[in-house]
Amino acid sequence: MKAKLALLPGDGIGPEVTGAAAEVLRAVARRFGHDFSFAAARVGGDALDHDGSPLPEQTLALCLGADAVLLGAVGGPKWAGATPGPEAGLLELRRRLGVFANLRPARVMDELADRTPFRPGHVRGVDILIVRELTGGVYFGRPRGRDGDRAFDTMSYTADEVARVARVAFALARKRRGRVTSVDKANVLESSRLWRQVVSRVAEDFAGVELRHMLVDSAALALVQNPREFDVLLTENLFGDILSDQAAALAGGLGVLPSAAVGGPGPGLFEPVHGSAPDIAGRGIANPVGAILSAAMLCEHGLGLAAEAAAIAAAVSRALGAGVHTADLGAAGAVGTAAFTKHVVSALA
Ligand code: NAD
Ligand code: IPM
Ligand code: MN
Questions:
Q1: The CATH number of domain 116-251, selected from 3.40.718.10, 3.40.50.300, 3.40.50.720, 3.90.400.10
Q2: Is the CB–ligand 2 distance for residue 87 below 6 Å?
Q3: 20-50, pLDDT tens digit by residue?
Q4: What residues pair up with 47 in beta bridges, in sequence order?
Q5: Separation of CA 113 and ligand 3 centre (Å)
Q6: Nearest to 122 by CA among 229, 231, 254
Q7: Does residue 280's CB lie within 6 angstroms of at least one atom of ligand 1?
Q8: Which atom of ligand 2 is nearest to the CA of 74?
Q9: Looking at 245, 279, 328, 342, which residue is catalytic?
Q10: Residues 207, 275: Cα–Cα separation, whole Å
Q11: Per-residue pLDDT tens for 45-77?
Q12: Is 157 considered catalytic here?
């Protein structure tokens, strides 16, 4: 297959982890006989510095013309207080691509079950798919702003926005263990009461998938107390942002979680769940697993290459199983980003 991939390294550790993921994609192309071409563009703080905008027109054009987009991370202390900031570029990119469904799998790899703050028996076998609504809610609601010493944001959803992401979650649950937990704050928020109604209505079209509703505070507790209760966790934008970082703690940390943003008319956007990690940027020690597994999701959800995605996941497991890992997964015996990636690439070949 021939595929045009847009590469947006971004800020902080973004270039380090997307470099690793691109290397793995090149290895996949060699092994499976594909022709992947890569074109890079600036986003976030890097783009602000060079082009004066966190999402320059040429970056957006490159993405819209690509078959899939792989992004590292944006933001950092250098741009604190900038308006617009680097993060605005990422939000605008998601909006312009129309990628309203963000799939964030939090799966505990056997190789990492003893690398979390939890007892291994508590997290072993955990396999959660967070489906986060990505282009609505308080991130995008209007009005927002300042009025003297008052600041305000708007949490807003339409029934259509809820229904389309709910359908994605139910369709995926059908291929998994058939259980959707919809997370909201319907005891307080009107937008959550609409969310709950619409999700219940969508559930009627998916016989065989079980739906339960949960309030976000108790979901936060259950996620760490009974993580195996969850199959697909469907939620709105802000709750999904918070709960996915929390779920990362079950799986071995923020460095290992990938994501896929899909549902738009054009290419999907694939990015690790973590940010630019300014505290470790530029040192060659970032964990590239989240980015590499995002490249696997790019193969599966962006290009329809499921075997290639499975091969990448297997290669990552193989490297971790051999005890090769970066420092965030344990200081003893840790290797750098490049050495870890090399192991994944040779496991692929
Ligand atoms: P962060 O995710 O960048 O880092 C949180 C902690 O996790 C840090 O200690 C960091 O060192 C560690 N960490 C994260 N990824 C890692 C990796 N791959 N390997 C090893 N350790 C890793 O969150 P933050 O510090 O709150 O945010 C920093 C900046 O990143 C902010 O500007 C924020 O807006 C931005 N951010 C961007 C994205 C994105 O681009 N998708 C996501 C989250 C945060
Ligand atoms: C994420 C990040 C972004 C978000 C920020 C950087 C805008 O935290 O992708 O999880 O909140 O969506
Ligand atoms: Mn986040």
A1: 3.40.718.10
A2: yes
A3: 999 999 999 999 999 999 999 999 999 999 9
A4: none
A5: 23
A6: 229
A7: yes
A8: 6
A9: 245
A10: 38
A11: 999 999 999 999 999 999 999 999 999 999 999
A12: no
